[in-house]
UniProtKB/TrEMBL annotation:
GO terms for molecular function: 8-oxo-dGDP phosphatase activity; 8-oxo-GDP phosphatase activity. Belongs to the Nudix hydrolase family. The keyword Hydrolase applies. Keywords: Hydrolase. The keyword Membrane does not apply. It comes from Labeo rohita (Indian major carp). Residues 35-161 form the Nudix hydrolase domain. This is 8-oxo-dGDP phosphatase NUDT18-like protein. It holds the Pfam family NUDIX.
């Protein structure tokens, strides 16, 4: 597959098999529910624009309210975990509309938040209370229960409302592809605005690629947020100018996971859009100067395909990607 074909697939949210790591900081292979927590969370609205909430039965937070959420089990896909958690805690059946946000505390704790919709079943009543939850109810955003377990769900509810009103990116579903570590395939771009745009010339864009012309796949760094992954690669490739560069993770273009072989394929690959810029223009360096790559394993590739260049720039400028929240 050519580099252009690879980039096109990544931009569309499609998956690509992880065959090698181009940079592999020390990381143990994750094992679900032992040393790694992958979780799901559902944001579901009814016809009145009320959001679904469940009342917790956990001994640590009895009676508090939260969105339907929980940890993935061995062998589950992300979508299967979502449907199971909503059924267990809220009593209804659902289907995902789109991934809405990824929340993370590093490669050992990642939660996939979905905008979803009810497809059947009925809300759990207090008479049906069990260890999963006490009951489920619909709530207006302005009249949420006061005893919410954690305020982190408020940003998710607000994101769900905004997406329903005006979607900022295309609907995105996880791709069923296995991976044995937590890693990121990086679409790492540098743009140059030195072209004379008034004369019809267009902004130029380069992608950092491996020596065999592949998008770099980098293992996430233990005990640090996922946002460090791209910084690790840039620091390794461009140590001389690293302090002068700003490495901005724009968001996620795609999610790849398959836990069908517990203990072996418990990882996840996040296809991630990253923008590399100079922090400020200095006398010695122009903001349009392509940072020199000092690692023989990587090089810059200029995107000359006009439609591909336009699509990448639109993703960057419009922010039409899946956002990541580091908790």
């Amino acid at each position: 597959m050519s580099l252009e074909e690879t980039v096109e697939r990544v931009l569309k949210g499609e998956g690509l098999e992880v065959t090698e790591l181009h940079l592999a900081p020390k990381q143990k292979k994750p094992v679900t529910r032992k040393d790694t927590c992958f979780a799901v969370c559902a944001i579901i609205f009814n016809s009145k624009n009320e959001v679904l909430m469940i009342q917790e039965a956990k001994a640590t937070c009895p009676g508090s309210w939260y969105l339907p959420a929980g940890r993935m089990e061995d062998g589950e896909s992300i979508e299967e975990a979502l449907k199971r958690e909503v059924k267990e805690e809220a009593g209804i059946d659902c289907k995902p509309i789109t991934l809405l946000q990824i929340q993370e505390k590093g490669p050992r704790w990642i939660r996939f938040a979905f905008l979803a919709e009810k497809t059947g079943g009925s809300l759990k009543t207090p008479k049906e209370a069990n260890a999963d939850s006490l009951q489920a109810q619909w709530y207006d955003r302005e009249s949420l229960p006061k005893n919410i377990r954690k305020s982190d769900i408020l940003t998710l509810i607000d994101a769900g409302i905004r997406y329903r009103q005006s979607p900022w990116c295309s609907e995105l579903q996880p791709v069923n592809l296995p991976c044995d570590v937590v890693c990121q395939r990086l679409l790492l771009a540098f743009t140059s605005s030195d072209a004379n745009l008034e004369n019809g010339e267009e902004e130029r864009i380069w992608l950092l690629v491996s020596k065999d012309s592949q998008l770099p796949v980098v293992a996430s760094v233990e005990a640090q947020t996922l946002m460090v992954t791209a910084k690790k690669l840039v620091k390794d490739c461009m140590p001389s100018v690293y302090e002068q560069l700003s490495v901005n993770t724009c968001g996620i273009l795609g999610v790849q996971h398959s836990g069908r072989a517990p203990g072996q394929t418990d990882g996840v690959c996040l296809n991630t859009l990253v923008l590399l810029e100079y922090k400020e223009e200095e006398e010695e360096i122009s903001v349009n100067s392509l940072p020199k790559t000092e690692n023989d394993g990587f090089r810059w590739h200029e995107v000359t395909n006009k439609s591909l260049r336009t699509e990448i720039l639109q993703k960057i400028q419009e922010g039409s990607v899946l956002p990541v929240q580091s908790l």
